[in-house]
Write a structure and sequence with these properties.
Number of strands: 13
Order of helices and strands: HHHEEEHHHHHEHHEHEEHEEEEEEH
Strand content: 15-25%
Structural class: alpha+beta
Shape: globular
Strand order of the largest sheet: 2-1-13-12-11-10-9
Radius of gyration: 19 Å
Helix content: 25-40%
């Protein structure tokens, strides 16, 4: 904590984030009383703000922010040539072929375009996941009992189904548990010592991780740096780029949470902003409990908001986007 604050004091002096401070103070009620905001640019933290007890090393449930982590883990298998985004899940999980779903591709699993029926996400549907004894049992139930309501790749419905299928695929390839794989390939190489999906046989790759602001920022820095963290390559630049390619158009989105309506989706992450050619320039993976991490490729920085409040309305989205605008303005001013 002392190191983080000293970094901010040194680097932050170069920027004037008074407008960001003001926005956070004015919106404490809407964001909740516990807030941690970090901004990373040019190899250092240039801003940090803590309100309440949301300290940087406190592990909290991050809900759908987990999806970005899980997608990165899947891409590590792509880097090794053990998996392709174009592979069909029937190749690894024959039970899906048996029930007429074997032609779903890995990229469909990472982009919520499997075509498998799924209820809108809410607190009750999330808790319902705990009824399965293991990830294997859950995924087998998807194969046997969930209906196909669209051809793979043709309709987007935000859910926890696709990431669980992809997670089971890499478990099958490696003969290791999802949590083991996450620790080996993502958490430990990124020094994310307080981040975990839990140790039980049932994990939720879509929403079951706990993490800290400091840990998650390490992940964002790796993504911002095209797969490199410090001197280590975690993912190839090609895999990071593939994760960021939009997999949807707005016309195929049939269900999205309120806070992300109007965004397209890539693999494990939302496309918050795109350029005139449709290329992703700002990517995010907001969580149900209020966290909003993002990277801005155009302005070359990473930022996160860690809070503890249900992210279920447009108001929080508006606040975050307003704060981002203030950050962007200051970064643009610093360039001049």
């Amino acid at each position: 904590m002392i190191l983080i604050l000293s970094l901010w004091q040194i680097a932050g002096a170069q920027y004037n984030f008074n407008k960001v401070d003001k926005e956070l103070e004015e919106n404490k009620t809407n964001l909740g009383s516990n807030i941690n905001v970090m901004i990373w640019k040019d190899g250092k933290l240039i801003y940090q703000k803590q309100i309440g007890n949301m300290v940087s090393d406190k592990a909290v449930p991050i809900a759908s922010c987990s999806k970005w982590l899980s997608a990165a883990l899947v891409m590590s298998f792509v880097d090794e040539g053990k998996l392709s985004l174009e592979d069909t899940i029937g190749k690894f999980l024959p039970i899906f072929t048996r029930y007429g779903k074997g032609n779903i591709k890995i990229k469909n699993c990472l982009s919520h375009t499997t075509g498998i029926e799924s209820p809108p996400l809410n607190l009750f549907s999330i808790l319902d996941e705990n009824n399965y004894p293991s990830l294997e049992a859950q995924v087998n139930d998807f194969a046997k009992n969930k209906k196909m309501i669209a051809a793979p790749g043709t309709e987007f419905r935000y859910s926890n189904i696709g990431l669980s299928i992809a997670a089971r695929v890499i478990e099958t390839i490696s003969h290791k548990s999802f949590e083991e794989l996450f620790q080996e390939r993502i958490a430990r190489p990124l020094s994310m010592i307080n981040t975990s999906f839990g140790k039980g046989s049932l994990v939720s790759p879509s929403g079951g991780a706990k993490s800290t602001a400091s840990d998650y920022m390490d992940f964002l820095v790796m993504i911002l740096n095209n797969g490199i963290f410090g001197q280590k390559r975690i993912l190839s630049e090609k895999s990071v780029s593939a994760m960021q390619q939009p997999q949807t158009t707005l016309s195929i989105i049939k269900y999205a949470p309120k806070g992300t309506e109007g965004f397209n989706y890539a693999c494990g992450e939302w496309v918050q902003e795109a350029d005139e050619n449709g290329n992703s320039i700002v990517l995010t993976s907001p969580g149900f409990f209020g966290a909003w991490p993002y990277i801005d490729k155009c302005r070359d920085y990473a930022a996160l908001f860690f809070v503890r409040k249900f992210f279920i309305n447009e108001k929080m989205k508006e606040i975050y986007l307003d704060i981002k605008k203030a950050v962007d303005e200051q970064i643009a001013e610093k360039r001049q």
